[in-house]
Records
---
Amino acid sequence: MKSKSTTLKIIVFIVLVMLTCAYILPIYVMINNSLKTLPEITQRTYLAFPALPQIQNYTDALFGSRNFLIPMLRPIINSTIITVAVTALAAFFGSLGGYYLSRAKSTFTRVIFILVGIALYLPYQAVIIPLTTITAKFGLINSHLGLILCYLIINLPLASVLMGTFFLGIPRELEEAAEVDGASRVQTFFLIVSPISLPAYASVSIIIFTQVWNEFFIALTLVTPKTQTVQVAMAMTQGSTISPYNLQMAASLLTVSVPLVFFLLLGRYFIRGLLAGALKG
């Protein structure tokens, strides 16, 4: 039995090492080649270290240069504004909706829950025309507020379901004790339920933030040069110059830096929130 356990541990260790290498290799190639010169890139020795690291590549990618005509600074600012706003609003309104779905037991609630579940699986291609119409009617077309409204409508069902799943695991006795002490339903939610649900808020925020930051189809359809996001800008870098892969790699690293920092700030709550939602749901 002990021999089998040792063999199993070795197999698991080897698999973990292989998976780690598979995940780290693209990141290594991206960082390594972002520091090379264009002649070094053309040699296609992607795993070799640069002769002299070119920090200037990041400045060129951020502010633009003769070899890189799409400066990434403005798209990064646009994406940060849109993504942070959508994440905050989706976490707030999603928690309210999720709390209602997890506590109300009427037929109306079941119908709403089914509709929310259906909304999770709607492809973006099916809602792009209604979203465009709504933003146009409100006078928000081609603006940051218009994109924020579109992404909020798309991601609110997911936030409600995830938060509602977590709220199902919170003991009702806590809320009943608060009500006995004279707390209203609103006070119970904000003073009792929300503070102990911070892992769920963190998990939902990371998921929504990543989805909105990486979204391409709606951004490509609705953005203007003034509201251009990082994904659209990265797509435009291809063919704008003579394929400066070193600058494109530097731009790619800059675009992933914001969600990476966000994940590092809230990452310690992420797994805890997912596990709590999965086990209690």
---
Amino acid sequence: MKILLRLAMRSAWNRRFTLGLMLVAIALSTTMLLGIERVRHEVRAGFSQSVSGTDLVVGARTSPIQLMLYAIFRIGGATNNIGWDSAQALARNPAVAWTIPISLGDSHRGFSVLATNGDYFTHFRYGSNQPLRLTQGHPMAGVFDAVLGADVAAKLHYHLGDIIILSHGMGGMGLTQHADKPFRVVGILARTGTPVDRTVHIGLDGMQAIHLDWEGGAPLPGVHIPAEFVKKFNLTPTSITAVLVGLKSRARVFALQREIASGQGYKEPLMAVLPGVALDQLWDVVGIGENALLVVSGMVVVVGLAGLVAAILASLGERRRELAILRSVGARPLDVLLLLCIEGLGVMLAGVASGLLLLSLLVWTLGPLLAEQFGIALQPAWPAAGELQLLLWTVLAGLVASLLPALRAYRLSLSDGLTPRI
């Protein structure tokens, strides 16, 4: 075996240019395979951690997925709101540590508007329990203050002090504008990679103020309350969309969920959803994208292995004399087969190791840019157990693939090798 190893190394060194190109191809395939795998895991983790640290999401009774889609991802519409009295009763529950009331329904140039209070910036968490962070300005303090998500500020080129006009409702063109009550941008949030980036945040009092002279989704005819007079009115909301709830003890989460579902202590029927469970159910619905990434990963491996087989097969024509000479000096056909297998396995191992090194280098250099631009937080790390298993299968597949040219070499005749066709 030592002789075969030495022969394989010297043979590889003599064909270092060709094998070098093959190694580069395998390294790039490995980098793409692991890169896609890490992005896939990160996207799934980011999806499931769009909200973290929140024990329950409470809203009007509907399906859990619809409540999560609307309250967390700003997709679709709420079937009904819940009364402010119910939100206050929930906040007074002895098991509850904090609540974040949220109210949705308006928009600004295609981005959702979320009305909330200061507890949003104190208690809301995403990812691995990360708090929201302002890159510029401060949270809302006045009635007509607005804090923008990172995508809103970047795509609409907004800066602190800019004036924005909200639209009544969400979606398409032709929405009625709240032009008489403009908001001023007082803060811009750091990128989170969650729906927060695509949200305009205002205060609950601001949401109430712009609807003082509205009724039934339209301005009241002949009634107009100027922005400077809104503070003369009671700006406490009468209803909100949902409440994010944090508990003093997570052991109480199922008990409180049952209590809310029973309606005990509340004036209206409510529903409490565990965010993690609902997000997993939601991912199962939208997981077709994950399957697509898996298919892409598999295709990358197949293309890399096909390149390996093609390169070794192409080199066999050049090596027929070399292999025939080995046979003439006593090498058995099995030795020729093992020599080709060792060569293929060595190239695969070197290519996989180079691919891992290249991926770590790319993550180290481009990771901050990906996090800043796309919210995908890739960190340099040792391969996870799943990635190691994937690499093992890749190397084994490469070994099996190298058997094809090895078997062809095994069948080469001695006379054919010594008198090659021209």
---
Amino acid sequence: MTVVVGWTPDARGHAALVRSAREALAHREDLLVVNATTGTAAVDDRFASSADVSEVQAMLESLGVEAQIRQAVARDIAEELVAIADEVGASLLVIGIRHRSPVGKLLLGSTAQRILLGAQCPVLAVKAPDAPGR
């Protein structure tokens, strides 16, 4: 089985990555790190650079975690993560979350909520210790 993590190069993504690595090690499963963008912005700071990817690979190797990193451009990030989790038969999908105001949710929707409702496997939502956005 495989643990899938939705990763972004920020505090939320790091928290999700660390937790997913622990889950993969504890259950002796592979880890699939997914970093996706919609490609609609000229610069998407949630889409990892090659330096970010190298740093994550080194961290996971130092922990002894077997991992693959997949970067994707998708119309809908939530749909992409759920589809990838289904594709690999994930045992767990780990995501980083942040606080969002009710107005923010109304205007922009919640990717985390759509993942929680759409995933066929268990979803673990992780908050960064000092998550920005509050």
---
Amino acid sequence: MTALLTAEFRKVLSLRYWWILGIAPLMVGLFCGALTLPVARQLEYGFGDGVAEAVAAAVGISLALSLVFLFAAIFGAVATGSEFAHRTIVTTFLTTRGRDRVVGVKLATVAVIGLLYCIVTELAAAATLVLFGGGFEGADLGSVAKVLFIGLFCALMWSLIGAGLGLLTRSTTGSVLAICAWVPFGELIVSLVLHGLGLGTLASYLPAQVTWYVLFSAVSLPEDVTLEMTWPLAPLLLVFWTVVLGGLGWWRTRNADIV
């Protein structure tokens, strides 16, 4: 198992896409850390004390983390889908005892890289926040730490969602297009349709919206803001979507006639 895991990491790290996909969230994290909190602290003069932390978390950290989740999912889809596109999965299956071991190692590798994206982006955002934003003075460090920890959890879930989609579709292009279309646009359109049909409650159960509820439920929001979903339902639903897509991808890879 260790040899298989080592081989999988070497395979991923020998290609360039794993670090190329991490550049976008890293750059956004750098700029968000440098600019968001200083701007938010200026808003406190107009909206009162305590606004800066909420705005910085809602706009700055959340924007950087949202890109981390998106690119972690894309990485997962590319890492698994490309194996089928280039037929390298056939050799791996023929030289390994059991497909479950191969799929398990792939998901573990994708999860580690997804967490790495999030850790690097969070460290970059925190470093620029300290250097250019005056640090965390006046901020609730407990809430900041909670948001960063939840970011790791969501990045892990989305990397596995992407990997599951890649295993399910067995197509890199199809999986990446599906993620890029669904996260920023598709889910919004479906949500609007559901609200139009009087089924707006169902919209809050969709994966991207669940992720926002997981993230924002850890932030101290103004008293007049009420979330439709909080802990522990929100993270459980995100785990549910991960298990569904990851499980379907695993099931199809395990039973399909690939070799």
